Amino acid sequence: MAETVLDYEAEAAHYDRTRGGVPRAEAAAEAVLRLVPPGARTLLDVACGTGLVTERLGRPGLRVHGADAAHAMAKVAAGRVPGRTVRADARRLPLPDASLDAVTAVWLLHLVPFATDVVAEAARVLRPGGVLVVTVDKDAAHDVGSDIDAILRPHRSQGRAFDRAELITACAADHGLDPAPGTFFTGHGQGATPRDTVRKLRAGYYASWFDGDRAATETLAAELTALPDQDRPRADPRYRLESFVRRG
After folding, report:
1. pLDDT in tens, 46-77
2. What is the reported pTM?
3. Cα separations in angstroms, 209 against 3, 58, 155, 158
4. Contact 172, 118 (CB under 8 A)
5. Domain 8-142+158-190+236-246: which topology?
């Protein structure tokens, strides 16, 4: 199940600091570039956030652009990718058909119930032979076998996750995108602690797991609070990237 969508206008000021910072961004960018063909000349990073990953996607011959729906996020990103960042909804990109060689969406699809619309729009703006690179199965990435996971696992519902791999793959096929090799990367600095998991739980990150049942939420919080080493981070997640190629 995807987390509750945060207010990304408010999150922009401290987003990088609370999301693993540069090490996490470098790992993501390096993994994405492994999947972008050497001949690609144009890449759009949708839902680019603060641009911390976006600015690391550059390489000789590849012109990188960013787009984000949140004004505050796009403003920060514009400082990192000047002149090549726009405010735009990932479902309605201000671009003509078949105009890009690559589209990326890192840590987006798990958040939005319209994930399939994002895939469809990416297919529209890709040229034949162009590639879409996306993170999938984000909840599974955080299931690293820790004591926290043992408590959370029964409440997760991968079958309802917006970014489950089989759903994204089927949607991609419907829009002329064929599966290509994928890869994994480590989410540095994202290992959960029991205390922070309880904070997120009470803040509503997992509200959809309980359909507003506050008693169930507090029961789970009590189990997490009883764990040892409340501030010790457990293992970092291992994120999954899938890629799809636009048919000619």
Report:
1. 999 999 999 999 999 999 999 999 999 999 99
2. 0.87
3. 9, 39, 6, 11
4. no
5. Rossmann fold (3.40.50)
